[in-house]
Amino acid sequence: MKKILITVLYIVVSLCCAAQQATINGNVSDTLNGVKLSNTVVALLHAKDSILYKFVRADDKGHFDIKNIPAGNYVLLVTYPTYADYVESLTLTDTSHIHLNKIILIQKSRLLKEVVIQQKVAAIKMKGDTTEFNAESFKTAANASVEDLLKKLPGIQVNSKGQITAQGETVKKVLVDGEEFFGDDPTLVTKNLRADMVDKVQLYDKKSDQATFTGVDDGEKSKTINIQLKEDKKRGYFGKLAVGAGDHGFHNTEGLFNLFRGKKKIAAYGIMSNTGKIGLNWEDREKFGASSISVDDQGNMEFFGAGGDDLDNWSGRYEDNGYPLVQTGGLHYGDKWDQDRKNLNMNYKFMKLYVDADKTVSTQNILKDTIYSSNSAEQSKNSIMRNRINGLYELQVDSTSSIKLLVDGGLDHKITSMRNTSEMQKNDMLINNGYRITNNTSDAGKLNTNLLWRKKLKKKGRTVSLNIAENYSRTNGEGTLDALTEFYQKGQVDSTQRIDQLKTVNNEQLNINTNITYTEPLSKKSSLVFNYGINVSNSHSNRNSFNKNNGGKYSLLDSLYSNDYAFNILTHRGGISYAYTLNNKLRMNLGGNVGFTNFNQKDMFRDHVQERSFVNWYPNASVRYSFTQQRRLNFFYQGYTQQPDINQLQPIRTNDDPLNIVIGNPNLQPSFNNSFRLGYSDFKVMSGRSIWASASYNFVSDAISSRSDLDTSGKRTSQAVNVNGNRSIRYDLDMGWKISPWDLRIGGSIGGDFSRNVNYVNSLLNITNSSRTSISFNMQKEVEKKYQFYFTASANYNVGVSSVQSTFRTDYWSYYIEPNADVYLPWKLQLHGDMSYAIRQRTAVFTGNNNAVIVNAFLAKKFGKKELMQVNFSMNDIFNQNIGFDRSVQTNTITQTRYSTIGRYALLSFIWNFNKLGPGAPKQ
Asked: What 3-state DSSP class applies to 371?
């Protein structure tokens, strides 16, 4: 009896609850003849995230009925083949009973004849590991560049230099239709291709070709953007010619021509400019293996190594320090033919860059009971002539196998000249001063090749691939060092050191890496991957210093600062991994490699040979779970070994700076890095809300750090050593919303990092803890042909403290306010203005005027129906406040740098954009 009562009570409650839920019903028909559309799909989606709640099909009379709907906000979607979709937003209560008597669908063909359809496509989609932005969903002005488009995409930032950051990481490559376009300078794509040519923008971590083929992550990846062009923009030609001249000798001339004929792309560009805005930074510079890390106000990290393979410290790039003059150009050719079985992509670039610069540096070295303060002033004249060529050829041999060959090489000729004056104080008492003059000339070359063979075997999922890579580089240089240093005791000159030497450097390195990978499917969802490889790395460094003989010639070898050293590494590496995929929602990869490494170190100058062996482990794991097409969670772990380089190992004293002597350490051990990263992304189609969040943790065993000793005269002696305890944490949260009533997009981010770095200072173990917290806000709005506005503001808080003197802290705030606006006036006039206001807190160390308000503006008059021609009058740094400024904390050393940089100038330019794309374009 009790069970019967409970059952009756449950039925009554269920009926009551059902009665309190909403219902929707209606009828679907054709607008032209009133025909009832049977089997029409009627879907109900949650308005907040577009997730499907329920769907039904209309009966043979076109009638549908959806019952028992909880209260809330929904979107009703009615769809039928060859008909335009019907969409309606609904707000339901517990008592809502909505009857849609006549839902009339219109055939797409009829709509196309009568009206222009504005189809709402999802602005952002997740496809596998790729985030895809629909370019049409982000409005840009007429003749806007790809860079203007990227600035509007959630999670992507483009700074004033054109450098791109996406989801907290630096974008290293920008591809066009999946292929390189002028190689390694993203700005050549983003500043010169037009936004209206773009169909999709794809953002992903580009893996090695072998990892992409096998599906197993090998740790090689770089944040990449692929610009996918519209099909109708792949036939014809387009380009730009700009000529500008201004006061104080400033000028800018640039030309770009592109010819697209289907899959064939031919392009050329040329630039002559001293404005520092374009064509300067095409050279990857990723030399890690560092001894210490410096973090600036905005969290950018710079790595410092012990020694180098050149005689100067100029990177060969313009980095806003000084006054540049660039003459550069390039050619690009790409084509696919024979039903895409063959693919050829080639690039050639040439550049002459001249940079004249001067800077002042204030440094404090914090010891346990002493603070050493130094000030230096430096003037330099640098130039480089650079040639680069790279190419790709891919052949699809048959339906199961392919061969891919990549080749790139280059030659650099660099000339540098520098004069430095400095003085150092110990507890406010002068202990040394002097000057240093260097003149250097060097030639550097490189040649890299990569051959990949891929083969699919008969069983589905069974594959084999072979990758052979070669990297060769050499540097030959010669220079002079003229230095005079006076050392003081109690305010009087106690001793003097004079160095007048000729220095030569001849460095050579050859790496050959082979790897064979075999995949074996275990089921439709899982597979095993086996790999084995051999890596050979041979380095040779010959550095000599010569003093003058009695006749004034540099012929006396100084053995203390000379060395001839060879460092050879042989590694056998193999492993296994397991891959699992479930319904395209869960993708998992677990595995590891083990490496057997042999070091052979030959000090030929002192006839000494050292042999060492190591066993290295390379574990890795990755998991990706997709909740929906727009929401996912990623986890990644990688453990890897980092070998010391020859400049850290060779037993030589380097006195390029007589007050900072560097000694090699032939007993350095490899370091082992553990890297964890967790990422989450979510996008809601209807509201336009986006979230990107990530957190990473890294710790290093036997990290390659430094041991430095500063004596009472102010001389520092440094050496690379192994330490334990280095670790870092980084986190980023980036969010964006679209406020529909005002067509306004707003966003914000919170991020930061914490690092713990260990080194030795005057034989004391020193632990430096530094952290940065950042918060930012951005807002953008555009009314077509009227105005567009972009605003961003950020605040950063930095803290640093070293254990050698824990009472001495460096903590400071820095703020950045950057509005940017365009107003479109009658008579085809455009007024543009942008500002960068940097507010940097003064401290006991970072003194002086640290703030700057940089305002730029231009007034443009456009001509023609398509506004392809314009005359542009621009003003750079109107208030002339562009001070070159940088500050950083590096272990127990605090540095503030001020340097010369481009200030106020006016420029009058003529710009001609030309194109003949799409229908009517020249045929192949």
From this structure: strand
The set of residues, in sequence order, having a beta carbon less than 8 Å from that of 14 and lying 6+ positions away, is none
- CA–CA distance from 247 to each of 251, 273, 275, 873, 875 (Å)? 8, 14, 12, 12, 10
CATH number at residue 149: 2.170.130.10
Separation CA 223–CA 218 (nearest Å): 15
Query: Residue 366 and residue 118: Cα distance in Å, rounded?
Result: 64
Checking phi first, is residue 39 left (phi over 0); if not, alpha (psi -120 to 50) or beta?
A: left
Q: Identify the CA nearest to 650 among candidates 308, 312, 310.
A: 308
Residue 155 sits in the same domain as residue 224: yes
Encoded tokens for 822: 């365009």
149 part of a folded domain: yes
pLDDT in tens, 194-230: 788 888 888 877 766 655 655 555 555 677 888 888 8
**Residue at which a domain ends, from 205, 233, 261:** 233
Q: Which amino acid is at 853?
A: V
Whether 208 maps to a domain, the answer reads yes
**Phi, psi of 649, rounded to the nearest 5 degrees:** -90, -40
Domain around 77: 20-115
* Kind and range of the H or E run holding 726: strand 726-739
The predicted model scores a pTM of 0.78
Amino acid at 483: A
Do 50 and 96 touch, CB atoms closer than 8 A? no
Q: Are residues 111 and 154 in the same domain?
A: no
The four Cα atoms 138, 141, 145, 149 give a dihedral, to 10 degrees, of: -20
In a domain, 742, yes or no: no
The angle subtended at Cα 785 by Cα 783 and Cα 789, nearest 5°, is 45
Instruction: Pick the last residue of a domain from 115, 142, 157.
Output: 115
pLDDT digits (tens, 9 = 90+) for 382-418: 999 999 999 999 999 998 999 999 999 999 999 999 9
For 317, residues 6+ apart whose C-beta sits below 8 A from its C-beta are 280, 281, 283, 285, 353
Domain count along the chain: 2
Q: Considering the domain boundaries, does residue 585 fall inside one? A: no
